[in-house]
Amino acid sequence: MSLGPYAFFIVTAYVLVAVVVLVLMAWIAIDFRRQTQRLRELEASGIVRRSGRSATEIR
Amino acid sequence: MNLIDLANPTRFLALTARLLPWLALATALLLALGLYLSAMAPDDYQQGASVKIMFIHVPNAWLSMFVWGVMSLAALGTLVWRHPLADVAGKAATPIGAAFTFLALVTGSLWGRPMWGTYWEWDARLTSVLILFLMYLGLMALWQAVEDPSRAARAAAVLTLVGAVNLPIIKFSVNWWNTLHQPASVLRMGGPTLDRAFLIPLLIMAAAFSLLFVTLHIAAMRNEILRRRVRALQMMQASRPSA
After folding, report:
1. Virtual CA dihedral for B175, B179, B182, B188, nearest 10 degrees?
2. Residue A15: which domain range?
3. Is residue A30 less than 8 Å (CB to CB) from chain B?
4. Total number of domains in chain B
């Protein structure tokens, strides 16, 4: 597979898409960890939902 | 389980916890197949190897509009049916749609430079997609600016529905005005004009990116539900009498 004179444009486009998608995935994963961590801390301090169920019950 | 059951955030979290790993696996497999077929696709007789940019540019461009369409349905869900997950869906989709729109603009620009001789031209298609990107950023700012999620949801829903006017303008801009951008070659009356050697990898990449959106959207919706639980518990904590 030869990209010829357009190699710079093609490779830059694919790398950029990969970077943005990976950043998006990482951001969502980090956000999930942050929210579950906060919920655990709040529950550990004795704050519970009105339903009485665990706020980290997500399964 | 029917659709009404999904209106319950706890049930939504339970169902999606089981669904997400499979969605992620399907996305990865389809993306790998699409990338392989894109790499193996022949060069275009006019555009040479630069046609490979099409396999990532077009799916991102389609999704930039599709995501706003999803957000518009969510906006209706917020304003008309007051569905408990509608504004969660709208908010979660916004940064993902912004990312796809950004990628559509940049990959288009990188494709345009060797083909048109310029990275940017203020023509109808490019400008209307840039406006779409700015509207995504505006919506993200709105969600951040209003602290109460239910108030933010109503304002964001109205803005989303107003912004939906831009979707047909983007789609038909290449027909209504003289633009550098080529007219539709896949979603058009009379069927696609693309050769199968390009059409099949393109459709597989489009399916892979669509699955990627569904996966990321569901994961982001789960985060938003958890964020609201955090907020609710923090408010309960703040309202507790101090010892």
Report:
1. -10
2. 1-59
3. no
4. 1
